[in-house]
């Protein structure tokens, strides 16, 4: 009678499928968690929709026209008459800044055009109009 070693018969097998599942789970977890780490420092407004909307780079300067007609330069409310001075200061700080004009869809069109006119008169060459992508 021949005795066999139990170690030889019952060697553990490396199961790779559960390891792949765990790796993909960790990958998805870290991808989703990094999406929530990004903060946007903008004022909430209801933007109109456009089919050709594109995402602009995050280092832009936000100029927002609220529903009541007041003008916000980044996070600070300023009168329309002082907007040109602020734009001149920003152009002096940065070589060619991008200004993103964000107008609430309930705002009067003339108010948004007045802000755009002030931006252009102050020397802003790169002005983008923010919209939401149509669904």
Automatic annotation (TrEMBL):
<feature type="transmembrane region" description="Helical">
    <location>
        <begin position="12"/>
        <end position="38"/>
    </location>
</feature>
<keyword id="KW-0472">Membrane</keyword>
<comment type="similarity">
    <text>Belongs to the ExbD/TolR family.</text>
</comment>
<keyword id="KW-1133">Transmembrane helix</keyword>
<protein>
    <submittedName>
        <fullName>Biopolymer transport protein ExbD</fullName>
    </submittedName>
</protein>
<dbReference type="GO" id="GO:0005886">
    <property type="term" value="C:plasma membrane"/>
</dbReference>
<keyword id="KW-0813">Transport</keyword>
<dbReference type="GO" id="GO:0022857">
    <property type="term" value="F:transmembrane transporter activity"/>
</dbReference>
<dbReference type="GO" id="GO:0015031">
    <property type="term" value="P:protein transport"/>
</dbReference>
<keyword id="KW-0653">Protein transport</keyword>
<dbReference type="Pfam" id="PF02472">
    <property type="entry name" value="ExbD"/>
</dbReference>
<dbReference type="InterPro" id="IPR003400">
    <property type="entry name" value="ExbD"/>
</dbReference>
<keyword id="KW-0812">Transmembrane</keyword>
<keyword id="KW-1003">Cell membrane</keyword>
